[in-house]
Amino acid sequence: MAVIENEYSSLILTGEEAAEWDRYSIQNYGVESRLLMAWAGYSVFAHIRATDYFNKSNTVHLLTGSGNNAGDAYVLAWQILTGTNKKVIIWKSKDPKTDDAKYFYELCVKFKEEHKELDKVVFNDLGNIQSLDLNSKDIVVDGLFGTGLNKPLAENYQDLFSMVNKIKDIVRIAIDISSGVIANGDNFTGVVFSAHYTYTFGAYKVGHLLEPGILHSGEVTVFPIGFAPLGENFNSKIDNQIGEKFGDSNNNSIINDDKFYKKISKRRLIRNQKIPALRKPEGHKYSSGLCTVVGGSEGMEGAAIMSAMSFISLGGGLSKIVSTSKEIIRALSDSPELMILSQPEVSKLESTVKELILSKEREQVVVVGPGLAEELSETFWKWITSIKFVHLIIDGSALSHLYKNKNIIKSHQLGSLTLTPHKIEAGYLLNKDVENSRNTALEISNIYNCSVYLKGPGGIIVLKNHQNSESEADEPGKNEIEKNETDVSEIEEIYVASKQYELSTGGTGDVLTGVIANMIHRVGKERALETALSIFLEASNEVIQKEGLQSLGQNIKITKKSENTFRDLLTPTELIKALKKIIQEKYAILQ
Predict the structure, then answer these.
(1) What's the whole-model pTM score?
(2) What are all long-range contacts of 410-413, with beta carbons under 8 Å and residues at least 24 apart?
(3) Cα 374 to chain center, whole Å?
(4) Of 35, 343, 361, 423, which shows the fewest CB atoms inside 10 Å?
(5) Domain count, the chain
(6) Is residue 74 part of a domain?
(7) For position 209, which CATH number holds?
(8) Rounded Cα gap, residues 452 and 462, in angstroms
(9) Could you tell me the residue range of the domain that residue 517 belongs to?
(10) Per-residue confidence of the chain (591 residues) as pLDDT tens digits?
(11) Which residue, 184, 208, 230, sits at the end of a domain?
């Protein structure tokens, strides 16, 4: 994902927050709205005119609506007309409604009137776009709806995008956000504009980074265009000086509230992390980290083995598996470094786990769920969540049984609690369908008092920094998201921003669970999830490049299409090998 480095390139906002920032800049700070529009359109032009795809094209088609998103497109059209020899074809669905959009639209109209002999600009009715004749290398720019859309597209727009998305050898550009994608990250139905490149302003929008929007955003670039500065205690101070001057003396903007900046400052993209050594010269297996995996039921033994193996392969001290499967003992012939205990009855499995944990009353990780078919008892959950020196990770099948025990889980006394659901499992955790990945992750974090990694394209980590007090958590009259945002200092949102084919192969998610367990010992509970994800993605790319080069030949470039093919061939075993290599290289660098 490309980012032009600037002060705002790391901000992540919802659609409502972005609109409020725009309004605040204009009304409270005095930035001219027409200037913002001009800077937006020019930023896109200045960027694309240096690209290969623009230089190879002859014609730029712009799809425009009636709002300010269309205004940005008209600025782009004006810049192309006056600064290049490209032809511009404007497909207009409606006349522009805002004064700023009208201004730049009329500039394009005047250009056509004054320079008819050049035949550089054509205006067409979007309703007749079925007659669109696109040539190879043409560019189609989406300036229809922008970030204000919060409902499904009408059928005629879906038909339009279905046609445009299928045309090969053209370049599709979205201004601000692809039409049909909801800026807040809500799910949507039907066909949307699927961009190769998205050029947005001031900040990423949540919809760019999470499923389903990330699948239609392509490469996203953020441009600063002159919005008012954001900073803790900053905006409320300047309001005292300029609020009355620009007609907003009530100062009722959400941006005036310091909580707004605290909240958005807790959202960011995933970062590469430093990895310290886990094993020290004077250390031993117990000081190098303990992990007990509860799972691997009959027919699913491999899930528990992969979690345990990835933990110990990355330097963990002792890795144990407790399973109801009688066959899992056979794994010792291939993985003798593991300690495997088979207990066919669930009650005996639970008691064995207790004995193992209490035999070493020291900080340790317990993973519950990989390949676990059986439902664990309420008594077990009450007991394990009361152990302060345990860092508990719940994954896989165990997630589907947690909802009935949510109150037990929420009141846990654990060293840390981490849940790693995909969307279906998230639905089980909340007992409802998932409609918005961000809201879902925040709600799970609040209900279960835990850190969360919600898997899937995009992916989001919600880190829980401390437990809610009862007065906070149980305040009446608030929904789960509002409760979660009562104290914004307690959570942090980290956006993985990866399409994550890596987790679509059976067993790779179990490998990740083991990596998280290892990182809890290595870097601590606060950094474990982010560090695990960053090296996991790096290792998967290592495997893809290796497999790609072996299959295609050293001198053949791996294309996006072929890269996706190799992602489909990614195996857990190869992934563990690559993880070991990444750990060794990062540790060697630190030495």
Answers:
(1) 0.87
(2) 410/447, 410/448, 410/449, 410/473, 411/385, 411/449, 412/385, 412/386, 412/449, 412/450, 413/385, 413/386, 413/387, 413/388
(3) 32
(4) 361
(5) 2
(6) yes
(7) 3.40.50.10260
(8) 5
(9) 290-530
(10) 444 434 446 799 999 999 999 998 998 889 999 999 999 999 999 999 999 999 999 999 999 999 999 999 999 999 999 999 999 999 999 999 999 999 999 999 999 999 988 889 999 998 877 667 788 889 999 999 999 888 889 999 999 999 999 998 999 999 999 999 999 999 988 999 999 999 999 999 999 999 999 999 999 999 999 998 876 544 444 444 443 433 444 445 666 666 777 788 889 999 887 787 766 666 656 667 899 999 999 999 999 999 999 999 998 989 999 999 999 988 877 888 889 999 999 999 999 999 999 988 889 999 999 999 999 999 999 999 999 999 999 999 999 999 999 999 999 999 999 999 999 999 999 999 999 999 999 999 999 999 999 998 899 999 997 544 343 334 434 443 344 344 545 789 999 988 755 565 678 899 999 999 999 999 999 999 999 999 998 888 877 666 543 433 333 343 444 444 444 557 888 888 888 888 877 765 444
(11) 230
| C-alpha torsion sign, points 469, 475, 479, 482 | negative
Contacts of 154 (CB under 8 A, 6+ apart): none
Q: Which of 180, 210, 230 is the last residue of a domain?
A: 230
Q: Is 255 part of any domain? A: no
Residue 297 lies in a domain: yes
Residue 43 C-beta-side C-alpha neighbours within 13 Å: 21
Q: What tokens were used for 554?
A: 């050293």
Token pair 């192969």 in the structure block, residue: 505
In whole angstroms, what separates CA 372 from the centre of its chain? 28
Considering the domain architecture, whether residues 205 and 320 belong to the same structural domain is answered as no
Residues 470 and 330 in one domain: yes
State whether 217 and 331 are in the same domain. Answer: no
Q: What CATH number should be reported for the domain holding residue 417?
A: 3.40.1190.20
